[in-house]
Specification:
The protein is an all-alpha fold. It has one domain: Ferritin (Up-down Bundle), CATH 1.20.1260. 69% of the residues lie in helices and 0% in strands. It is built from 5 helices and no strands. The chain is elongated. The N and C termini lie far apart (37 Å). The model has no long low-confidence stretch (mean pLDDT 95). It binds fe (ii) ion. The site of fe (ii) ion has 2 residues, from loops.
């Protein structure tokens, strides 16, 4: 799947748009909406990967990883909805197809046949990459004065840093 630069994302614009009067200019809102689209795509694909490992985990970590992944994909499902709705509140269309997600996401697809430890390491790496994207998004939102997105990014960082710590603890000896 061919990847695209975030700045190349084209939001569908066929419907009649009502101008926003929220104190954030269109250019800034579009920049944040593109970042959030990428966060949305990564979060969705991380949720799918987490679910996949939940189903297929085996080995000594079975019970712990099976339960932790359930908590994590359940939390992600709720969070993804909030991110998509934030894109809408900024005045843009939220992406929601696998072809677009694949183009704008940096999440590597889950591999089959991994051991419990390999699954933990892969999930950890995916959470850590998303953490970097969340920080970048937070900074861009801060630059344009979008406190609501800043606040949302702080909340997402809190969850993903905790998830990363838990997954890291499965691997550390
Ligand atoms: Fe289950």
């Amino acid at each position: 799947m061919e990847k695209v630069e975030l700045k190349e994302i084209q939001f569908p614009n066929s419907h009649r748009k009502i101008e926003l009067h929220t104190g954030l200019d269109e250019e800034g809102r579009e920049k944040v909406a593109k970042q959030l689209s990428s966060v949305l795509a990564d979060s969705y694909l991380l949720m799918l990967k987490t679910h996949y490992y939940h189903w297929n985990v085996r080995g000594t970590l079975f019970k712990s990883l099976h339960d932790l992944t359930e908590e994590q994909y359940t939390e992600l499902f709720e969070a993804i909805d909030d991110v998509a709705e934030r894109i809408r509140a900024l005045g843009f269309e939220a992406p929601g197809t696998f072809s677009v997600f694949n183009k704008i996401s940096s999440v590597k697809e889950a591999k089959g046949g991994l051991s419990d430890l390999e699954m933990s390491a892969d999930l950890l790496e995916t959470h850590e990459n998303l953490i970097l994207k969340l920080r970048e998004t937070l900074n861009i939102a801060d630059e344009i004065g979008d406190e609501v997105t800043v606040d949302m990014m702080v909340a997402r960082l809190t969850v993903h840093e905790k998830s990363a710590w838990m997954l890291r603890s499965f691997i550390e000896r």
